[in-house]
UniProtKB/TrEMBL annotation:
InterPro entries: BBE (IPR012951), FAD-bd_PCMH (IPR016166), FAD-bd_PCMH-like_sf (IPR036318), FAD-bd_PCMH_sub1 (IPR016167), FAD-bd_PCMH_sub2 (IPR016169), Oxid_FAD_bind_N (IPR006094). This is FAD-binding PCMH-type domain-containing protein. Its cofactor is FAD. It comes from the Eukaryota. Keywords: Disulfide bond, FAD, Flavoprotein, Glycoprotein, Signal. It comes from Escallonia rubra. It holds the Pfam family FAD_binding_4. Belongs to the oxygen-dependent FAD-linked oxidoreductase family. One of its GO terms (molecular function) is FAD binding. Residues 135-311 form the FAD-binding PCMH-type domain.
Length: 602
């Protein structure tokens, strides 16, 4: 086993050892993790949403310590501006009780700030410490529905009270900017954590997956029924499928099968009127929009029907680390030209980060080539010798395993770890972070790469990372208009830039966010243009935001064309049809066209 594999094998025990440690011990932990930290980063910043971490043996019981009665519930508000809405919030709670089929049942899934379970439930799925401060806006109410009718009631009651309470829907809590649980306006969090049923049918090769399920739970349930079926979703087990699929969603089989959203064949959602619709009743336009256009703009996703896909009995994985002293610059430069042209069974992504050098007291840049091959190692070695011999891949770098074991490998767990870890959605370690995304159409020159390395030597980049994800294969074959996700043929690879820090406070946050903004600015000449494209599941409010109230088409198009390109216009048309009053809205939600007419001068 390679040294990097050995370090990876220690990852879970090292992270578990960190439980209860103070923040000032985190840096030494990350150093101890060595190159295995790339897997932790991947989980922190992988789709859809993605965040750091894995599982413990404890789980919050979302149905305990509920409100003891609605008649005396008062909402504890967090600012003077919210105080004026206190009566509306109380009316909202009373509305839920009056219009629920069973008032006792609804009371058991409602949490307000005067309830002892409120903060644990709110914080359980928060993955980014930037949104855990005392001055971060908190929801007036959290609802953890256990039945579909309760979701309809929440929507109807929120609309009844004059849109005084926005609805934010959270499935896994991996929104990079916290939009599933943070709002500047009074709001309700609809936490879908109890919606986690998964039904796998191996005969039809399909599965129904409720939106509160995690990708780890999905992989586990598939593996229970079959060793030769899989699904092309993300690598982080704690990501919720509700947001992951609705933004596109991708993983290690991207080049073989495309996005998760490319493989959704039906869905059920609750619309603005509280009606429950499936693909047939919602129509093809809305079904198109929610598969990559962000479901939160159009309704509340209840569940997805997906097609399961063939995986071989054995796959091969490897992680090869190369530093600058080991020719990393030339290898990354060559990788850019070949990674998108490999056979679609081969996926090699690239992690860039700063590490300690073998020279005492010095640091260097390391490129980690991290790969899944849907086949045996002999064929892989032959392909690599033919297409990328410069990497020097050797048999001892490769490990054959089942596809479900590779899921654990890329999530950072050691070989032999029980599959049960995929069912645990408790994050063990959380960091402050900020991320950005880009698409590359032409190889970055060696001088351009060296400029990136230079920035990674800066103080703020100590735990920063860049992930280069190859395209090509199936991604070249699917039309950019097939679903709202438009980033298809013509892209060599996608970049995710991320920076992490452990210090509390605005000063530390500004320093690190300033660094990643400067890196993003540096990258401009080397990435896509007109628009400079971005991936919605790597949410970035820097690329543009809506107004706090209703926004205009012109305002939303600033960010909309970056995420969706020309598909943004069709999304606006769908929004206008299904939610003309803009009930489902956030800082980057699709606006209805009617608001464009009202604010033509914007």
């Amino acid at each position: 086993m390679s040294s990097s594999s050995l370090r990876q094998a220690n990852i879970v025990s090292l992270v578990r050892a960190a439980r209860g440690r103070k923040a000032d011990h985190l840096r030494s932990l990350l150093s101890a993790l060595g190159s295995a930290f790339i897997f932790l980063h991947a989980c922190t910043i992988n789709d859809g949403s993605n965040e750091l971490m894995y599982a413990s043996t404890s789980r919050i019981n979302m149905k305990t310590q509920s409100t003891s009665g609605l008649s005396f519930v008062l909402v504890l508000l967090f600012s003077s501006s919210w105080a004026a809405s206190a009566q509306n919030h109380e009316d909202f709670l009373q509305c839920l009780s009056l219009h629920s089929q069973n008032s006792t049942s609804i009371s058991q899934v409602i949490y307000t700030p005067n309830n002892s379970s409120y903060l644990p439930i709110l914080q359980f799925s928060i993955q980014n410490l930037r949104f855990t401060s005392s001055d971060t806006p908190k929801p007036a109410v959290i609802v953890t529905p256990s039945h579909e009718s309760q979701i309809s009631t929440v929507i109807k009651c929120s609309r009844t009270h004059g849109l005084q309470l926005q609805i934010r829907v959270r499935s896994g809590g991996h929104d990079y900017e916290g939009l599933s649980y943070v709002s500047e306006l009074p709001f309700v969090v609809l936490d879908m954590i109890n919606f986690k049923s998964i039904t796998v049918d191996t005969e039809t090769r399909t599965a129904w997956v409720q939106s509160g399920s995690t990708v780890g739970e999905l992989y586990y349930r598939i593996a229970e029924k079959s060793k030769v079926l899989g699904f092309p979703a993300g690598v982080c087990p704690t990501v919720g499928v509700g947001g992951h699929f609705s933004g596109g969603g991708y993983g290690m089989m991207l080049r073989k099968y495309g996005l998760a959203a490319d493989n959704v064949i039906d869905a059920r959602l609750v619309n603005v009127n509280g009606e429950i619709l499936d693909r047939k009743s919602m129509g093809e336009d809305l079904f198109w929009a929610i598969r990559g256009g962000g479901g939160a703009s159009f309704g509340v996703i209840l569940e997805w029907k997906i097609k399961l896909l063939s995986v071989p009995k054995d796959v091969t994985v490897f992680t090869v680390d190369k530093t600058l002293e080991q020719n990393a610059t030339n290898l990354v430069h060559k990788w850019q030209s070949v990674a998108s042209k490999f056979p679609e069974d081969l996926f090699i992504r690239n992690f860039i980060r700063r590490v300690n050098s073998t020279r005492d007291g010095q640091q260097t840049i390391q490129a980690s080539f991290n790969s899944l091959f849907l086949g045996g190692q002999d064929r892989l070695l032959s392909l690599m010798q033919e297409s990328f011999p410069e990497l020097g891949l050797a048999k001892e770098d490769c490990t054959e395993m089942s596809w479900i074991e590779s899921v654990l490998y890329f999530a950072g767990f050691p070989r032999g770890e029980s599959l049960e870890v995929l069912l645990d959605r408790t994050p063990l370690v959380r960091l402050y972070f900020k991320a950005k995304s880009d698409y590359v159409k032409e190889p970055i020159s060696q001088n351009g790469l060296e400029g990136i390395w230079k920035m990674f030597y800066e103080d703020e980049a100590e735990t920063a990372q860049m992930i280069m994800t190859p395209y090509g294969g199936k991604m070249d074959e699917i039309s950019e208009y097939a679903i709202p996700f438009p980033h298809r043929a013509g892209n060599l690879y996608k970049i995710q830039q991320s920076v992490y820090w452990e210090e509390e406070g605005e000063v530390a946050a500004e320093r690190h966010i300033s660094w990643i903004r400067r890196l993003y600015s540096y990258m401009a000449p080397y990435v896509s243009k007109l628009p400079r494209a971005a991936y919605i599941n790597y949410r970035d409010l820097d690329v543009g935001v809506n107004n706090q109230g209703n926004t205009s088409y012109a305002q939303a198009s600033i960010w909309g064309f970056k995420y969706f390109k020309k598909n943004f216009n069709r999304l606006v048309k769908v929004k206008t049809m299904v939610d003309p009053g803009n009930f489902f809205r956030n800082e980057q939600s699709i606006p209805p066209v009617s608001l464009r007419r009202k604010k033509k001068g914007d």
